[in-house]
Design brief:
259 residues; mainly alpha; 2 strands; 2% strand
Length: 259
């Protein structure tokens, strides 16, 4: 009964699916994918009318193309947090999520706020003068700009390494755009920066490092799933992004900026 109810909700148009399991907007590289074997699939389910729906079976592995279409979103989120490959394939290939830009801006705002707060804590000036308040507001905008530049450097490092690898799955403009969306979406872990600051504790610096590791792990999983790469090449791409990002930070520090 639970599965039947989930399929009925799915057939009603939830999660961006049309009635026959096809969606022309999912024209991203590869289209639908089997979450188990990563093979392309023409549909996720078939609608036999009158509430009769059946999940499509992959012709390659003989398993359901996407078992997550009948799962609750909370279960999908938990599987994504655990960095399960199947959950990432479901999110990246078989759903319509168009919050990449908004999520990126919000994550950058979180990071900028954290840096701005640390900068204010290190400042001993408590003068309530308007000029001081405007200077503090400018500091926040400056931190947002620095965080944006560092994020850009990280992404450029990843794309450069993958471009030099001459990958067959990364040749067209749409391939690069799809990978960019996957990387931005997999950076959702940065949202944990705000709770880490609000619930300030002696272990906050350790929590921030763990959040950084989690975000990098999610980014590497997004690259692996999107391009179907080996773990070695994926780690090399992430390392290239980190090197360029840290180089940007070093450049800012040499310029005398507090980052």
């Amino acid at each position: 009964p639970g599965k039947r109810g989930a399929l009925k909700r799915m057939g009603a148009g939830k999660r961006g699916f049309s009635g026959n399991g096809r969606s022309p907007e999912m024209g991203e590289p590869g289209g639908y994918r089997c979450v188990e074997c990563n093979r392309e699939a023409p549909e996720l389910y078939r609608d036999y009318q009158r509430g009769v729906l059946r999940i499509a079976i992959c012709k390659s592995c003989q398993k359901p193309v996407d078992k997550y279409i009948e799962y609750d979103p909370v279960i999908i989120l938990i599987n994504a947090i655990l960095c399960k490959t199947q959950a990432y394939r479901h999110i990246l290939f078989n759903t319509q999520i168009n919050i990449h830009g908004k999520l990126c801006i919000f994550c950058l705002l979180c990071e900028a706020y954290l840096r701005w707060l640390q900068l204010q804590d290190s400042s001993q000036n408590t003068d309530p003068d308007d000029l001081i308040r405007y200077a503090k507001e400018w500091d926040f905008y400056r931190m947002f700009g620095i965080a944006s530049l560092e994020q850009t450097a990280f992404l450029i490092g990843i794309f450069t390494a993958l471009w030099l690898a001459r990958l067959e799955s990364l040749k067209t403009k749409s391939d690069f755009i799809f990978l960019l969306k996957a990387l931005l979406l997999s950076s959702y872990g940065k949202l944990l920066l705000i709770p880490a600051v609000i619930w300030e504790h002696d272990y906050t610096p350790l929590c921030l490092k763990l959040i950084k590791v989690f975000v990098l792990t999610s980014n590497s999983q997004a690259i692996r799933v999107t391009l179907n790469l080996s773990q070695k090449l994926t780690l090399l791409a992430i390392l290239s992004g980190l090197i360029l990002e840290n180089g940007t930070v070093y450049l800012f520090q040499r310029m005398g900026w507090n980052v």
